[in-house]
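Run: sequence + glycine -> complex structure.
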Amino acid sequence: MKRNVKLISPERFSAPYHIDKQKLTNAAKAACDKLRARVERDGPMFPVSTCSKNFRYQPLGDNANWVSGMYTGCFWLAYELSGDDFFKNVAEEVHLPTYVHRYENKIELDDHDVGFVYMPGCVAAYKTTGNPLAKKTALDTFDYYFNTSYSKEGKFIIRQHTGYRRGGEYAYRTMMDSMMNATFFFWAGETTGNAEYTKAGEDHALTTEKYLIREDGSSFHHYQFDLKTHEPRFGLTFQGHADDSCWSRGHAWGVYGFPIAYSYTKNTIFKEVHRSITYFMLNHLPEDMIPYWDYDFTDGDEPRDSSASAISVCGLLEMAKQMDDSEPDKKIFENAAAMMLDALIDKCADLTDATDGLIKFVTHARPQKQGLNECAPYGDYFYLEALLRFLKPEWKKHW
Ligand code: GLY
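>> structure
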């Protein structure tokens, strides 16, 4: 679809914006120190819940939900930021065996979010140290995922949640979140040379572009298809404000997911759609640069979702990295990313013992009343990745 989305205030993002290197270094050090201190206090196991409650990640337990991967991923990112073996040891010696166990026992693997688990949790181990067990486990898991969660007829990653029905329909649908799960397809295709995997990832991204991204650059959270004919039916929401609104974190998965799809495929449709959805996001950022939980809100007292900002910063930088200096959007994306990260450091980073996470103001699921203005491992993960991308632009992504 051709979209003609424009930046409402291009002047807001066109002036060069610089974050002082020392400020970035201090923010990264403080985050790594906090992560280490918490593990020394509470142990290295995984948050049982997907977000904090009263800012605490306890109880801790097994590697068993979709945020486990981002939790382990924090240790890989902290290792790259600090060079401290403490983080590598947690990720490789304590966490990696849990990914093997999770695959062997098929724990929560009949799920759309397996890419969120295995890319930052297990593929990152292989990418960082070349660990052969990490590579084998990730590829074995991908094979299972490909055969259970991908619809070859529909050409999309199926949202696995059979208990959720709407309007009497079986929930045969896909969702914005799976733009990040598609990264598992691209990595598996590149690593094995199996073009079928890469094609499936590309087809998923094309399906998302066609049905979930609206003409104005906003996104549906979910999109329903007909179970028998695989024909498109309608868009709807699960975590957003309304079926026709734009849930901020879901949108952010596209702001980062499409540049990754572009990096593996060079399909220019992904670059085009990324510009539209990024302009939509930038047009809906409040004055203080911290998004509300849904882009229906641009001021007032609704909860924020700082994780949507952290994810989007990584997406802006990933796309900018692949752009030519002569493309005006490159500077816009870099300036916006710097403005957004600076706001995260100043207004959301919390380095006190009062919270377990690294950034506050993450809203997990407002309609379900889960985690409003709290912390979450995915907020921590993308905050660390954003800092790493600024401090080490040569860093090779774990996705
Ligand atoms: N499943 C990803 C999210 O809630 O953002």
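>> summary
The chain has one domain: 11-152+182-218+248-391. DSSP finds 13 helices and seven strands in the chain.
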